[in-house]
Amino acid sequence: MQARLSPEAVALYKFAVSTPLWTNGEAAAELGLTEHQVADAESTLLRLRLLRVSPDGDRDHDAVGPETALAELLFDDEAEIRRRQVELARVRGEVMCLLPTYYEGRRAQRRHEAIDVIEDVGTINQLIADSARQATQQVLIAHPGGGMDADSIDRILKVDLDILARGIELRILLQHSTRSHPPSQEHARQVSHGGGMIKTVPIVPRRLLVYDREVAYIPLDGEDVSKGALRIKEPAVVDFVTATFSSMWDSGRPMGIGADDEVDDIRSELTQAILGQLATGAKDELIARRLGMSVRTCRRHIAAIMLHLRAESRFQAGALAAQLGLLPDEGYR
């Protein structure tokens, strides 16, 4: 297998093909080679199966076609390769047959893991609905933004009223901006009438749901559940989420039946929240989204604040607010 075709071997092969009745002496004379060079070339051609001992007594060797020579030369190696391929296919088949077992085991394990990342919206909604139906003690909901559309609120209201009808404590935390949102106002009125509690704060950082302090859901991307959510059952993490909710709840303002007598306080908290956002350098669009209001309304608030503080720029308004101690707690920033 290590033989290499030298120029002398190539020349001798051509001569052998064209002159069947050849001898080493004739080849040496015809090709201008020494007998030693012819002998070396002959040995190379024999090892490569390009020459074979002739059964005809009139000549020593016969030239063999390259394809035939190659088939003979590689027969043993190709047979070994085929054997190894069969063996590899057998091993691969035995190992890969365990793949379904592996994935089924992993699925079973994930079902019992403390934190699941769920990206399918339908699965998320189904799990949340199941948690709501299975709750027996308390449901906590925090929802950012300025209020959902009427159809969404009607759908959520049915779930909320069902929870209250089963005697379960329901606490809902919204943003102050929902107080001027008619569908949210009606939702708050009916939930309050059914025995639930709703409060508002300047900013709800992200959406979260907690059921019986045992399972929590947090969107992967702020308030957008369509991009996936975390389903959390790890007690320490659920306790942390619950504590975060409770901290916001304790500073919230009641919303619902008989809870409209704190307009000045709420307006003051909105002003503080806007000042806090200005101090961080946030743009109007970001401030409006965080506070759940339109950009136009947000800019109207900012203009009034700058006029009140006699500030010539947004940055100066934030700096003056800090000097005067008007900035809110870090939780609203």
End-to-end separation: 77 Å
User: What fraction strand?
Assistant: 5-15%
| Strand order, largest beta sheet | 3-9-8-7-4-5-6-10
Q: How much helix is in the residues?
A: 55-70%
Structure class? alpha+beta
Indicate the radius of gyration in whole angstroms.
Answer: 42 Å
Secondary-structure element pattern, one letter each: HHHEEHHEHEHEHEEEEHEHHHH
- Total DSSP E strands: 10
Folded structure, characterized:
By secondary structure, this protein is an alpha+beta fold. It contains 13 helices and ten strands. The strands form two sheets. Strands 3-9-8-7-4-5-6-10 form an eight-stranded mixed beta sheet, sandwiched between helices. It has a two-stranded antiparallel ribbon with strand order 1-2. β8 (215-221) and β9 form a beta hairpin. α12 crosses α13. The longest helix is centred in the N-terminal third of the chain and has 31 residues, at 66-96. The chain starts with 6 loop residues before the first helix and ends in a 10-residue tail after the last helix.
List keywords for this structure.
single chain, 333 residues, eight-stranded mixed beta sheet, two-stranded antiparallel ribbon, 56% helix
Provide a concise account of the structure shown:
The chain has 333 residues and is of the alpha+beta class.
